[in-house]
């Protein structure tokens, strides 16, 4: 069966936090002397990391790997106070590329702790964002309804929950409901803690799933929001596959598909999406819908310390 239509989800791909993080590294490469280290992958995407590595960026998973007095950029996922302290001890010249939405959750963790709340974080164990947030204050992590059933908190009458920003309202709904059952007086965080990009992309892919035979999600396997996009489509009963690029597409997936949906996680470049469109468009008769990207009108400024560091570094 030949593909007759390709429909692109809108919005898709880079969010404002990812655009900002990549721009920080690219500007650092232009303004500062090498080597430039980045703590963790700047964003969870193989293509982005490989491209920046090709320009001389050194990605590390442990701050001990960074020599003293070096330039070090913190990834978009944020870091714990312990990492910041270690960076100061090593006299590192730090540029913080943490997404402002993640920073907001960190500040809330500190504020609620000072107000005497027991903190519960909804998120995925081992994710860099979760590691950073949990370092800010005492809190307990839940990733499922079962985790909630086993949860014990210091003050059951004064509980607040926070969420990993790359989860949508749908992702957290069942867990929040279970928490409310156990802790009826639980306080909710501000509504805008959920990343706008995560929610928007999941809403778009829900609509997409109703119009196509299968969906391809562009993103890396360690990208939480990309994995969720795949799961949203599958929960609608439509086949979905997570791919890094066109080379990972299997012909067997396409045999029964007249219409293919295409979306991209918040850290996946648009150039990969367009390459996949070219790969799938085997003839001029294939119709492509939704090519233009919707502007989400969210923009984050570059941290001032990058400009200051460039001015003072010989």
Put simply, the count of helices is: 12
Give average pLDDT, whole number: 93
Oligomer: single chain
Main sheet characteristics: 5 strands, parallel
- Please state the overall shape, judged from the principal axes of the Cα atoms: flat
Query: By helix and strand content, what is the structural category?
Result: alpha/beta
Bin the strand percentage. 15-25%
What level of helicity do the residues show?
A: 25-40%
Q: How do the strands line up in the largest sheet?
A: 10-9-11-1-12
Query: H/E element string?
Result: EHEHEEHEHEHEHEHHEHEHEHEH
Identify low-pLDDT runs.
none
What distance lies between the first and last C-alpha atoms, to the nearest angstrom?
A: 61 Å
Kindly describe this structure.
The protein has 314 residues and is of the alpha/beta class. The chain has helices at 16-31, 46-54, 81-89, 100-114, 128-134, 145-149, 169-182, 196-209, 224-235, 251-254, 270-280, 304-312; strands spanning 5-8, 36-39, 57-60, 71-74, 93-96, 118-122, 139-142, 159-163, 214-218, 240-243, 259-264, 287-289. It has a 5-stranded parallel sheet with strand order 10-9-11-1-12, with helices on both faces. A 4-stranded parallel sheet has the order 3-2-4-5. Helix 9 links the parallel strand 9 and strand 10. The chain is flat and about 60 Å long. The mean pLDDT is 93.
